[in-house]
């Protein structure tokens, strides 16, 4: 899988990718009763492959349960009480997207010049009249 010295690839999606990769390693390895990648399991082998699996089946009905909602909200509240930088609040999954959506509904979607040029070029290729693009640009300004 890799050559010495041991290392790792950067995870996809930065902190979210790291969290997902870590969770997958823990669930697939440790929870299944198998192994995870760490110094002890890799000693003596630079090409060790651990192929463990855990399957989790969730009941969709469980997601409407009031007890689950309360417990999830309590957990999120507890997480948000952690010390953090004043300009970097702790957000639960989806909160950043919700805030962005509200802002964009109120103020519009930011569009850089290069993207606008690409949209215009594509529109012209399929026959959108230039005056229609000009009117649209006025609405976006």
UniProtKB/TrEMBL annotation:
Domain of life: Bacteria
The keyword Repeat appears for this protein: no
InterPro entries per record: Mal/L-sulf/L-lact_DH-like_ah, Mal/L-sulf/L-lact_DH-like_NADP, Mal/L-sulfo/L-lacto_DH-like_sf, Malate/L-lactate_DH-like
Keywords: Oxidoreductase
EC number annotated for this UniProt entry: 1.1.1.-
Keyword Phosphoprotein among record annotations: no
Pfam families: Ldh_2 (PF02615)
GO molecular function, one term: oxidoreductase activity
Family to which this protein belongs: Belongs to the LDH2/MDH2 oxidoreductase family.
PANTHER family to which the protein is assigned, alphabetical: MALATE DEHYDROGENASE (PTHR11091:SF0), OXIDOREDUCTASE-RELATED (PTHR11091)
Listed name of the protein: Malate dehydrogenase
Lineage: Bacteria, Pseudomonadati, Pseudomonadota, Gammaproteobacteria, Enterobacterales
